[in-house]
Specification:
Layout (H helix, E strand, L loop, with lengths): L2 H20 L30 H12 L21 H13 L10 H17 L15 E5 L2 H23 L5 H7 E6 L4 H10 L2 E5 L9 H13 L3 E8 L11 H11 L2 E5 L24 E4 L1 H4 L7 E5 L3 H7 L30 H35 L4 E3 L10 E3 L8
Parallel strand pairs: 2-3, 2-4, 4-5, 5-6
Antiparallel strand pairs: 1-7, 6-7, 8-9
């Protein structure tokens, strides 16, 4: 495919994408296929010679579409909404053209600098404390990770290294292996499964704590667990507080959790993957009260800010906690620059990374803060409208108050009379 063919076929693909989005409500949300269906539709081996574009394009309809779950359909009601918009799609296309692998500032100056600015823009939109922003000229800052799962894992690993250094500074005879065996971290039983998975990947023990009637983790429960573990010789070091849990959009009491973490010198990580977007609306910002206690914080623009996957914003109060344990410098990565630069390869698991900040830049500029606020408020208004319908129908019950865009309801159990 040469440049002129790309012009022609690219326009054909854009037309296809535009038609798909325009008519998405006409598609059945869940495909009616069986696992492995593609094997029956494609050859067993790759073609020896290249095929014409027309044949490939036809197979989008024949092979791909029958197995697509239409996440952006208005009839899709599973999980949280899948963020997407034409501005974000345009940015994804441009990122593919540039093909920048932004492992260092020199490898992609625009990618690094724009990402730093976008994390400051979004941080200011949700009124994060200044310590989290690059513009404060302090030790904090933000990064775009691929997902909340990766962000939580990075926070956990950073906290682990910080805790090991602290313990060994006090008890020099303890080896790293012994310390790792004793380390324990905490979250609510309602926390996302990625919190537990982070423990599996890092070899650390995760203790899931019970919640109250509103599915919220409280400070006294955390304090009791820490006291119990300390008496058993364990080393508490990390706590995850969730704002907007996946099961029910419940909110942990992060003010009380934060107070405990400060008192016990534990790393406090806040996961606001879904609900965090709502904090750009002043009327919902109170839900973030207590964030000043956090060492790290995340929200996913891909969840509720019209930005397609993958895109998760993560902030830390002190970036040295990430840079110090995870910085690796080989000869081929050294930069001959007169000024100090920020290299995002130290901030995540992969060395290379996509130009994700383009999506945020396009979306923020084309919608504006007011446009995004309007979008979120509409979802919340629709959730309350549905809540009222369910409450006024004697066949259903709403389990607890609706805060944002999630309504937990169920059919009432009918009593049967035995003869």
């Amino acid at each position: 495919m040469d440049t002129e063919e790309f012009r022609l076929y690219g326009k054909q693909m854009v037309d296809f994408m535009a038609d798909y989005m325009h008519n998405i409500r006409n598609h059945r949300v869940l495909p009616q296929i069986s696992p492995g269906y593609v094997r029956d539709l494609v050859p067993e081996q790759a073609p020896e010679e290249g095929e014409p574009w027309e044949e490939v394009f036809k197979d989008i309809q024949r092979v791909v579409l029958p197995g697509v779950v239409h996440w952006n359909s208005p009839r899709f009601h599973s999980y949280f909404p899948a963020g997407n918009s034409f501005p974000a799609i345009c940015a994804e296309m441009l990122s593919g053209v540039f093909c920048n692998i932004g492992f260092s500032w020199s490898a992609s100056p625009a990618s690094t600098d724009l990402e730093m600015v976008m994390l400051d823009w979004l941080g200011k939109m949700v009124q994060l404390p200044q310590e989290f922003l690059f513009s404060s000229n302090g030790p904090g800052g933000g990064v775009v990770q691929s997902s909340a799962s990766e962000s939580t894992l990075m926070a956990l690993l950073s906290a682990r290294e910080k805790a090991i250094s602290y313990v060994q500074s006090i008890k020099k005879d303890l080896s790293q292996g012994i310390i790792l065996e004793k380390m324990v971290y905490y979250s609510s039983i309602e926390a996302h499964c990625s919190v537990e998975k982070a423990g599996l990947l890092s070899g650390l023990t995760c203790r899931l704590l019970p919640t109250d009637a509103a599915f919220s983790l409280q400070g006294d429960i955390l304090q009791a667990a820490i006291d119990e573990d300390r008496t058993q010789g364990k080393i508490p070091f990390f706590v995850v507080g969730t704002l907007g849990t996946t099961n029910s959009c419940a909110f942990d009491n992060i003010e009380k959790l934060g107070e405990v973490c400060k008192k016990e010198n534990l790393w406090f990580h806040i996961d606001a993957a879904y609900a965090g977007a709502a904090f750009i609306c002043p009327e919902f910002r109170y839900l973030l009260n207590g964030v000043e206690y956090a060492d790290s914080f995340l929200l996913c623009p891909a969840k509720w800010l019209l930005t397609n996957h993958d895109c998760c914003a993560m902030w830390v109060k002190d970036r040295e906690n990430i840079l110090k344990p995870f910085s690796i410098m080989h000869a081929y990565l050294k930069e001959d620059l007169e000024v100090e630069t920020l290299n995002y390869r130290h901030w995540g698991i992969p060395c290379g990374r996509k130009f994700r900040s383009l999506k945020m830049w396009f979306v923020f500029r084309l919608f504006g803060v007011r446009g995004l606020q309007t979008y979120i408020r509409k979802h919340v208004r629709l959730a309350h409208e549905f809540e009222n319908l369910a409450r006024n129908d004697n066949r259903f019950e709403v389990l607890f108050p609706v805060v944002l865009g999630v309504v937990c309801f169920r059919l009432k159990v009918r009593k049967t009379h035995l003869l």
